[in-house]
Design goal:
Layout: E1 7-8, E2 14-19, E3 30-35, H1 42-56, E4 63-67, H2 89-109, E5 115-122, E6 126-128, E7 130-133, E8 138-141, E9 152-159, E10 165-172, E11 185-186, H3 190-202, E12 205-210, E13 216-218, H4 226-244, E14 252-261, E15 265-273, H5 276-282, E16 285-295, H6 303-322, H7 326-348, E17 354-364, E18 367-371, E19 375-376, H8 379-387, E20 393-396, E21 406-407, H9 418-421, H10 429-445, H11 447-453
């Protein structure tokens, strides 16, 4: 029932990571900006990237802006400037682009040698969120205690040459939807407390990258109590710290060192310097852009149909207000908002029969980095990590655009599940995307074998 925030739970933050290869001749710098927003309009993301490019001279395609996807940030869109408080949106968004350029300039001035070490942890905050309501005989968006939930917590610790901890990257898939309609405070949701725990314990900055969380959300969510959001965040933060404690010193690997006769014959292991071959692989550097055409669904709603439905619900809201029926007003406002968002999605889709999804692939040493726009189901990251099990695989969604929105797996279509209902792409697109990326990564990691097989 409210349009503007009443205060701030925790400040929204942006964290910028500047990456460049150890040998400048092997590639160009890459900039990753992690921003505490749910979504930003395409024009705002372009403005941020262009502002950074103008300041640093880094190529536009090499600048990645990833949303944490916190729903507690509000929808910061100039199209909502007519709403109460909307006069603040334009100046805020202009300032945001300028601040990101300042952040990039500062990072550029502080570039220094560093090592990235990856660790695999587990955290069960994320839960499946497609729940079948038996009473209403339909799916709702909420905690499903029997659904599969990927608990992978992928971490990267960045250290300087003497081992000083500089920063932590957290890659985890879980919608920041602890807070919902009863909350009136601006909030990074659980991501804020997670960062606080890690930064206070480990030092340095914490950069969060949202994984494939289309069907994942907090076990306890959609509430108004910010204490629950902080509790959820601490759960992820402490799980991350537990994993960080297991990581080896930079520049080493854990190798078998032989047996020692004691109460029994004991096999010993030691942290030894990397071999020359391992060191060479650790310095691999390759980034590229990949475009995958995803067909639109045949029953995609039209602008005319959605506008007509919006007008009908606006009329219903007016009648409810006249009757002082607050509960009916709430429901009508929600329906109007759903059509408003649908109109925004439809107006921003690329014309034609398919959506050209532009993604970014990176090979950093032994690790694979994948950045995609939109919201993808967990099976996307599960499949890639299974296919490339010998490599850390960082999967980041909501990068450089929200469009084309949700990309669910084919077997979820036809059940009236929220994510599928509003999806713009047809069944099978997620599977095709997994296959296309997998084939490209396979070639990049072992081009000789790929040529022989083909």
């Amino acid at each position: 029932m409210h349009d503007r925030a009443t205060g701030v739970h925790r400040p929204l933050e942006a964290t910028l990571l500047w990456l460049e290869p150890a040998a400048p001749t092997t590639g160009e710098p890459q900039i990753i900006v992690a921003v505490d927003h749910c979504i930003l309009d395409a024009q705002e993301l372009r403005s941020i990237r262009q502002s950074i490019q103008n300041t640093t001279n880094v190529g536009y395609d090499n600048i990645l802006v990833a949303m944490s996807h916190t729903h507690g940030a509000g929808w910061m869109s100039r199209t909502r400037s007519n709403l109460p408080g909307g006069e603040l949106l334009g100046p805020y968004l202009d300032d945001l682009a300028a601040k990101m350029a300042d952040l990039a300039r500062e990072a550029q001035s502080r570039v220094a040698p560093a090592t990235i070490i990856y660790g695999l942890g587990r955290c069960n905050l994320a839960a499946h969120r497609d729940f079948f309501d038996e009473e209403r005989s339909r799916y709702v968006c909420g905690f499903n205690p029997t659904g599969r939930a990927d608990d992978t917590l992928l971490l990267a610790r960045i250290s300087d040459p003497v081992g000083t901890h500089l920063s932590t990257i957290v890659n985890y898939a879980c919608h920041p939807t602890t807070l919902a309609w009863d909350n009136t405070l601006i909030s990074p949701d659980w991501v804020g407390a997670m960062r606080e725990v890690i930064e206070q314990t480990e030092g340095g900055l914490c950069l969060f990258l949202q994984g494939a969380s289309g069907d994942l959300g907090p076990r306890e969510g959609f509430v108004g109590d910010t204490a629950i959001a902080d509790r959820n965040g601490r759960q992820v933060g402490y799980a991350a710290i537990s994993t960080l404690a297991t990581l080896p010193p930079p520049g080493t690997e854990y190798r078998y060192a032989g047996s020692v006769v004691s109460g029994t014959e004991i096999g010993t292991w030691k942290h030894e310097p990397l071999t020359d071959n391992t060191q060479r692989h650790s310095n691999q550097w390759h980034w590229e852009q990949l475009v995958v055409d995803l067909p639109y669904r045949h029953d995609l709603p039209t602008l005319e149909q959605t506008t007509s439905e919006q007008e009908q619900w606006l009329a219903e809201e007016a009648l409810a207000r006249a009757a002082n029926d607050e509960f009916r007003v709430r429901d009508c406002r929600a329906q109007v908002e759903q059509r408003t968002r649908q109109l925004t999605r439809l107006k921003n889709l690329v014309p034609g029969r398919s959506y050209p999804l532009t993604l970014r692939l990176g090979i950093l040493g032994y690790a694979i980095w994948v950045f995609v726009p939109g919201e993808l189901y967990q099976i996307f990251q599960i499949a890639l990590r299974e296919r490339f099990a010998d490599h850390p695989v960082i999967v980041t969604t909501l990068t450089n655009d929200w469009q084309p929105g949700y990309i669910p797996p084919a077997n979820t279509y036809g059940y009236n599940i929220y994510q599928e209902v509003i999806a713009a792409t047809s069944p099978g697109c997620l599977e095709a995307l997994i296959e296309t990326i997998s084939r490209r990564l396979k070639h990049l990691l072992n081009p000789t074998n790929t040529r022989q097989e083909s």
